[in-house]
């Protein structure tokens, strides 16, 4: 650790700076009353274009992205680039969807996607499934942010022999994060996101200019990567895709794009926007982050050319590939600049972790606590429950890292993408049509979730030796096809989900099974801030339907 004093000092100074900003954020943009979910959980619903761009970008492009995408290229080659196309195609896919969701949420005071589902289909049961799915998918995502911080701390030698000593810095960092999130709500990550993204842009632009010049140019970098994969016995690696992984690449990119804005934390940033125009401009401008992501991914090939060797993993005989980017900066840059890069990763973990914990807390408060435990809860009581729940969520994320194998957290996140896709028919399709029966949507969710879990159970992890839940690439040979190709589990599961929902709708309609009341109108989906007045008081649960599923 003594060899990294300068890096540790720079990292600590920048971390303390953003911590102060997190507490000061409680006074930023003059909140009317932080004891209200609209203020604490959505920043007053009045963020403009720049704030939303930094907030949503800081939320979607996380610290784990910063270390894991290049690590994937370092280990598997071209397959790791899947993150670049999916973060490009996602914005035209969701452009109109998110505008409609913002309008109907603004008009009715919805805080979560489950709020919308409850009002749209008149089904507390369906809303509960959407809420539970969102919370379950978000928890491992928060834990993953800690993996990014841990990789940086290990590189700086800030570690220990026991589990508690090894994770003590992370526990302290998350305790500070929990304190200022509790006080300032969504304003804290929104303000810190300016610092986080500025640091990352500076670090990456310097790296992609300086490192190729130092490593002999781009030809040398790609030659080194090609030589490494040519010597590897693995059938699916290489600097280009091959017949074995092309289908997996396409389906993973498409499925990940479909899932991205179903995560509750992604929707939280959208609902905090001031009007429809802010969302439209951001869906056009956010691909700038994808350009940055493409440059970040190439750090994996640069690490190969620089001869980086990953640090040992948590278990004997394994390596921690997430340390390749921190080691690259540690070995190739002056200590002060490496410290800035490490701070960018550390702060990059705090912004999404804060938003994710707020989103999960809002789901619990609006769709479980108020729906089933205390229907007459006041806005102040809702905000208080949400604050406490956000603390519990962060404690759970830290516990995952301290007591579980970090690799298991990474695999859990892959499962999270599969399960959040099962809310697509109710949330995304529901914004355009109410043709699907609420009972059929529940049946589709059960079928998609069941098939997805079965497929994930069949996938081993060759790196860890675990027999089940080792990834999301399902071998088509298990379906009886004579091929070595694999396919993304989430896309297959959601296809079955939609098919079952359509068939079950036809059956339920033929049996004249009652449908829930639609609490929205066509005009709600086109309302803007200047034309729409909420028909339901902001912060309250939509009117209860007359029947339930």
- How many angstroms does the end-to-end distance come to? 59 Å
* Anisotropy-based shape: globular
Q: Looking at the chains present, what oligomeric state does this protein adopt?
A: single chain
Q: Compute the number of strand runs.
A: 4
Q: What percent of residues adopt helix (DSSP H or I)?
A: 55-70%
Tell me the series of helices and strands, N- to C-terminal.
HHHHHHHHHHHHHHHEEHHHHHHEEH
Which structural class is indicated by helix and strand composition? mainly alpha
Radius of gyration: 23 Å
Could you please describe the fold and organization of this structure?
It is a single chain. With about 550 residues, the protein is mainly α. The chain is about 65% helix and about 0% strand. It contains 22 helices and 4 strands. The protein has helices at about 5-25, 35-40, 50-60, 65-75, 85-110, 115-120, 125-155, 165-185, 185-215, 220-230, 245-260, 265-270, 275-285, 285-295, 300-305, 325-330, 335-375, 380-405, 405-420, 425, 440-455, 490-510; strands at about 310, 320, 475, 485-490. The strands form 2 sheets. Strands 1-2 form a two-stranded antiparallel ribbon. A two-stranded antiparallel ribbon has the order 3-4. Helix 1 runs parallel beside helix 17, helix 9 (about 185-215) runs antiparallel to helix 17 (about 335-375) and helix 17 crosses helix 18. The protein is globular and about 70 Å long. It starts with a helix and ends in a 39-residue tail after the last helix. Residues about 535-549 have low confidence and may be disordered.
């Amino acid at each position: 650790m003594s060899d990294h004093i300068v890096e540790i000092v720079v990292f600590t100074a920048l971390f303390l700076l953003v911590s102060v900003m997190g507490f000061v954020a409680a006074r930023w943009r003059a909140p009317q009353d932080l004891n209200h979910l609209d203020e604490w959980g959505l920043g007053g619903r009045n963020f403009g274009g720049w704030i939303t761009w930094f907030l949503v970008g800081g939320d979607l492009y996380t610290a784990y992205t910063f270390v894991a995408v290049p690590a994937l290229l370092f280990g598997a080659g071209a397959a790791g680039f899947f993150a670049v196309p999916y973060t490009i195609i996602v914005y035209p896919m969701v452009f109109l969807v998110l505008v409609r969701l913002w309008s109907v949420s603004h008009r009715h005071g919805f805080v979560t996607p489950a709020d919308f589902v409850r009002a749209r289909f008149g089904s507390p049961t369906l809303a509960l499934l959407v809420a539970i799915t969102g919370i379950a998918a978000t928890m491992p995502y928060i834990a993953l942010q800690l993996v990014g911080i841990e990789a940086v701390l290990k590189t700086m030698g800030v570690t220990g022999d026991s589990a508690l000593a090894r994770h003590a810095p992370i526990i302290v960092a998350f305790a500070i994060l929990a304190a200022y999130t509790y006080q300032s709500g969504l304003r804290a990550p929104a303000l810190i996101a300016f610092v986080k993204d500025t640091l990352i842009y500076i670090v990456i632009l310097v790296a992609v200019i300086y490192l190729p010049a130092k490593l002999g140019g781009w030809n040398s970098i790609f030659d080194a990567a090609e030589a490494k994969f040519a010597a590897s016995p693995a059938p699916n690696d290489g600097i280009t895709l091959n017949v074995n992984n092309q289908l997996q690449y396409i389906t993973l990119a498409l499925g990940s794009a479909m899932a991205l804005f179903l995560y509750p934390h992604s929707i939280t940033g959208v609902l905090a926007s001031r009007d429809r125009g802010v969302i439209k401009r951001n869906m056009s401008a956010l691909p700038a982050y994808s350009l940055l992501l493409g440059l970040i991914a190439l750090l994996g090939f640069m690490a190969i050319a620089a001869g980086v060797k990953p640090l040992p993993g948590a278990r004997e005989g394994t390596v921690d590939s997430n340390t390749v980017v921190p080691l690259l900066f540690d070995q190739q840059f002056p200590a002060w600049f490496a410290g800035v890069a490490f701070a960018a990763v550390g702060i990059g973990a705090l912004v999404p972790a804060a938003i994710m914990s707020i989103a999960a807390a809002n789901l619990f408060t609006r769709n479980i606590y108020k729906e089933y435990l205390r229907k007459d809860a006041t806005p102040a009581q809702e905000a208080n429950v949400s604050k406490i729940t956000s603390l519990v969520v962060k404690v759970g994320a830290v516990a995952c890292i301290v007591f579980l194998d970090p690799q298991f957290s990474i695999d859990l996140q892959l499962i999270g993408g599969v399960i959040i896709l099962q809310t697509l028919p109710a949330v995304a399709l529901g914004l355009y049509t109410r043709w699907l029966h609420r009972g059929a949507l529940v049946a589709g969710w059960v079928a998609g979730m069941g098939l997805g879990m079965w497929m994930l159970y069949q996938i081993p992890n060759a790196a860890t030796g675990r027999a089940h839940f080792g990834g999301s690439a399902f071998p088509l040979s298990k379906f009886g096809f004579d091929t070595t190709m694999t396919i993304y589990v989430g896309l297959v599961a959601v296809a079955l989900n939609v098919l079952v929902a359509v068939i079950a709708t036809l059956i339920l309609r033929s049996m004249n099974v009652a449908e829930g009341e639609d609490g929205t109108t066509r005009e709600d989906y086109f309302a803007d801030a200047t034309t729409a007045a909420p028909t339901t008081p902001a912060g309250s649960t939509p009117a209860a339907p007359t029947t339930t599923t």
